[in-house]
Automatic annotation (TrEMBL), chain A:
SMART domains: AAA (SM00382). Gene3D superfamilies: P-loop containing nucleotide triphosphate hydrolases (3.40.50.300). PROSITE patterns: ABC_TRANSPORTER_1, ABC_TRANSPORTER_2. It holds the Pfam family ABC_tran. Signal peptide: none annotated. The keyword Cell inner membrane does not apply. It is found in: Cell membrane. This is Amino acid ABC transporter ATP-binding protein. The lineage of its organism: Bacteria, Pseudomonadati, Pseudomonadota, Alphaproteobacteria, Acetobacterales. Its main location: membrane. Belongs to the ABC transporter superfamily. It comes from the Bacteria.
From TrEMBL, chain B:
Belongs to the binding-protein-dependent transport system permease family. HisMQ subfamily. It comes from the Bacteria. The lineage of its organism: Bacteria, Pseudomonadati, Pseudomonadota, Alphaproteobacteria, Acetobacterales. This is Glutamate/aspartate import permease protein GltK. One of its GO terms (biological process) is amino acid transport. The complex is composed of two ATP-binding proteins (GltL), two transmembrane proteins (GltJ and GltK) and a solute-binding protein (GltI). The chain crosses the membrane at residues 20-42, 191-213. SUPFAM superfamilies: MetI-like. The keyword Transmembrane applies. NCBIfam families: HEQRo_perm_3TM. It is found in: Cell inner membrane; Cell membrane.
From TrEMBL, chain C:
Pfam families: BPD_transp_1 (PF00528). It is a multi-pass membrane protein. PANTHER family: GLUTAMINE TRANSPORT SYSTEM PERMEASE PROTEIN GLNP (PTHR30614:SF20), MEMBRANE COMPONENT OF AMINO ACID ABC TRANSPORTER (PTHR30614). GO terms for molecular function: transmembrane transporter activity. NCBIfam families: HEQRo_perm_3TM. This is Amino acid ABC transporter permease. It comes from Falsiroseomonas algicola. One of its GO terms (biological process) is amino acid transport.
């Protein structure tokens, strides 16, 4: 079983600072993985290496059985066109939403199909409306991002990723930039997606949510996978001291 | 001390002035449109991490921004033909000089504008699988251009003033016609007063426009 | 196409060229000083509570900012003497044209610097019982000047470039000297290239200096 995504010996350094120190991970179709860890443990970088927002320093990323990039002297080399194609298959949701401020919610969601996939305008907009409806924002289609709350913006961003009909979704701390009262609606939307059997990877600080959301939990420490298992195992019966200490610090964690 | 102004005589030669205005406008439009296009490529080259692109662009921009535009025009009219063996007309030399000068300033406006777009916008576009060209055209430039608009309007105002310098290399634009009229009519005071007023009427709307754009941007915060 | 460069006319005329550069700098220096004084005066008028003074200053500033400097050179050199009955040397005409024009720009920088100080600073000073004059001197100006220095320097570089227009009045600054030498030696390419290099060196060094000043100013702030 090669899985939909496989990481082999993934490493990433920023200057002399080695953030990822050899990650091996295989993700099966339909798995939902929550990536936990203290700040600086490399969890965001790991996620961002999967769709090459950061180019790994070493190691390979294999998507649906095909390794990304080519072996060249001194490491792997990646062609921009190949990375662009790869990214159309992997959706990403950012901590800061990153909606395009000069476009309405509808235009934001239609933009990818329209300008990247080459779908016709009418069809792209129909698709966009459908996905906005799915995140519960059909009536906000004509609103500009500046007129939306943080929670609404993040839901539009989720619709924008879904409109590409990706094979997997990456969530990079999707609720960290939100006011506490707006977190719920975004988590609700993500849980809704998990019921559709989508492959998802999520970096989060919300341990309670991770417990309900994930089929597998990964605990990262100093750029390596320190512990992994089912939510039950990792969050309720952690074997490693560091994992236990980390969970202990999140006293608000309630199952 | 009591001087009798004779503006009537100047305005009788309105045809001459109108011809000058037309040429001034032509010079202004040609130089500005070409500079806007050239400046975009220069600005992007200036931002490139590749040294082979970045260095020549930086050198070009610094040279044109750190020499007087009159020296540039004189150089293109008198020196450039010696180098290339091609004699250019005063109008071509002036258009070329003004375009190159303005493109250097435009490049810096583009650079500042593009750099003002936060990293998240570039990332969001890339995450959708956009090529760099699509990303630039659909996401970055539409946002950046809005912010650059006041600076470009100011540049257009500066350029309009600069066109008068083309008179020195005998382009028959407004200033040149004025100099001819002043010597022929022996009425320099009236001539240059009228011409100053014409320039003001042509240029001031641009300055007002830039001011309005800046205010609108400030209240709208650049979005939507 | 293979042009034989010959810079010897430049070296032979180094004396007059350097003298021209000296005149360029002399004209620039006096114009900046006079321009700063005029600009300060215009800015104070502009900020004064008197509506007439403020509008008058605004008209002068806007007129000079929105008309080509070359027109001012010619108006002052050829037109103004008719009005006042005193003939004008090219230097005086250029000095007046340059300093009034840059004075208009300087005035906007002065005014912009002062109004850019947040209202809270004025209120804090007043709450301490400071007089307006003391408030201006102790609280507002020290902060405003810091913000004014970079644009004032930038505008001064613009002025140095504009001095080349004095060549059209036959004032013996760098470009005019070069024009005379070019017509005598028939070597316009070398002469005008040399002029461009000289201007570039002076202005580029000055802008490097400005970057240092900006750096120091930014570090000085908190």
């Amino acid at each position: 079983m090669s899985g939909i995504l496989r990481l082999d010996g993934l490493r990433k350094s920023f200057g002399s600072n080695e953030v990822l120190r050899g990650i091996d991970l295989t993700v099966q179709q339909g798995e939902r993985i929550a990536i936990l860890g203290a700040s600086g443990s490399g969890k965001s970088t790991l996620l961002r290496c999967i769709n090459f927002m950061e180019v790994p320093s070493a190691g390979t990323v294999t998507v649906a059985g095909t390794p990304v990039g080519e072996e060249a002297r001194g490491g792997r080399c990646y062609r921009p066109a190949e990375l662009a194609r790869l990214r159309t298959r992997i959706g990403m949701i950012f901590q800061q939403f990153n909606l395009f401020p000069h476009m309405t919610a509808l235009q934001n969601v239609a933009e990818g199909p329209l300008s990247v996939l080459g779908v016709g305008r009418a069809e792209a907009e129909a698709r966009a409306r459908q996905h906005l409806a799915k995140v519960g924002l059909a009536e906000k289609a004509e609103a500009y991002p500046a007129r939306l709350s943080g929670g609404q913006q993040q839901r539009v961003a989720i619709a924008r990723a879904l409109a590409m009909e990706p094979e997997m979704l990456l969530f990079d701390e999707p609720t960290s930039a939100l006011d506490p009262e707006l977190v719920g609606e975004v988590l609700e939307t993500i849980l809704g997606l998990s019921r559709e059997g989508r492959t998802m990877l999520l970096v989060t600080h919300e341990l309670g949510f991770a417990f309900h959301f994930a089929t597998r939990v990964i605990f990262l420490h100093e750029g390596m996978i320190h512990e992994e298992g089912t939510p039950e195992q990792v969050l309720k019966h952690p074997r490693q001291d560091r994992t236990r200490a980390f969970i202990g610090r999140h006293s608000t964690f309630a199952f | 001390m009591e001087y009798e102004f004779a503006f009537g005589e100047i305005l009788r030669d309105w045809d001459l002035l109108a011809r000058g205005i037309r040429l001034t406008a032509a010079l202004w439009v040609i130089a500005f449109v070409t500079a806007l296009a050239a400046g975009l490529f220069l600005g992007i080259a200036r931002m490139s991490p590749r040294r082979a692109l970045n260095w020549p662009a930086t050198a070009y921009i610094e040279i044109f921004r750190n020499t007087p535009v009159l020296v540039q025009l004189v150089w293109f009219y008198y020196a450039f033909p010696v180098l290339t063996g091609v004699q250019v007309s005063p109008f071509v030399a002036a258009s070329l000089g003004l375009c190159l000068n303005t493109s250097a300033y435009c490049a810096e406006i583009y650079r500042a504008g593009l750099q003002s777009i936060v990293a998240g916008q570039w990332e969001a576009g890339r995450a959708l699988g956009m090529s760099e060209a699509t990303l630039m055209r659909r996401i970055i430039l539409p946002q950046a251009l809005r912010r650059m608009l006041p600076a470009f309007t100011n540049r257009a105002v500066e350029l309009a003033k600069m066109t008068s310098i083309a008179s020195v290399i005998t382009v028959h634009e407004l200033m040149h016609e004025a100099r001819t009229m002043a010597t022929q009519s022996f009425l320099p005071l009236e001539t240059f007063t009228v011409v100053a007023a014409i320039y003001f009427i042509l240029i001031y709307p641009g300055t007002l426009g830039a001011l309005l754009l800046e205010r609108r941007l400030a209240t709208r915060g650049g979005a939507a | 196409m293979s042009y034989q460069w010959d810079f010897s006319p430049v070296w032979r005329n180094a004396g007059p060229l350097l003298e021209g550069l000296g005149n360029t700098l002399w004209l620039s220096g006096w114009s900046i000083l006079l321009g700063l004084a005029l600009g300060l005066g215009l800015a104070l008028l502009r900020l004064s509570p008197s509506r007439i003074a403020s509008v008058a200053a605004l008209v002068v500033i806007e007129f000079y900012r929105n008309t080509p400097p070359l027109v001012h050179f010619f108006w002052i050199f050829f037109g103004l003497p008719i009005l006042i009955g005193v003939s004008m040397s090219p230097f005086t005409a250029a000095l007046l044209a340059l300093s009034i024009q840059s004075g208009a720009f300087f005035a906007e920088i002065f005014r912009g610097g002062i109004v850019s100080i947040e209202r809270g600073q004025w209120e804090a000073g007043r709450a301490l019982g400071m007089s307006e004059a003391r408030l201006m001197r102790r609280i507002i100006l020290p902060q405003a000047v810091r913000r004014m220095i970079p644009p004032l320097m930038e505008r001064s570089f613009e002025l140095v470039k504009t001095t080349a227009l004095a060549a059209t009045l036959a004032y013996g600054e760098l470009l005019y000297r070069a024009m005379v030498i070019a017509s005598q030696t028939f070597r316009p390419l070398e002469i005008y290239t040399a002029v461009a290099v000289i201007f570039f060196s002076v202005l580029f060094l000055a802008s490097l200096g400005m970057r240092r000043v900006e750096h120091v100013l930014r570090r000085g702030h908190r």
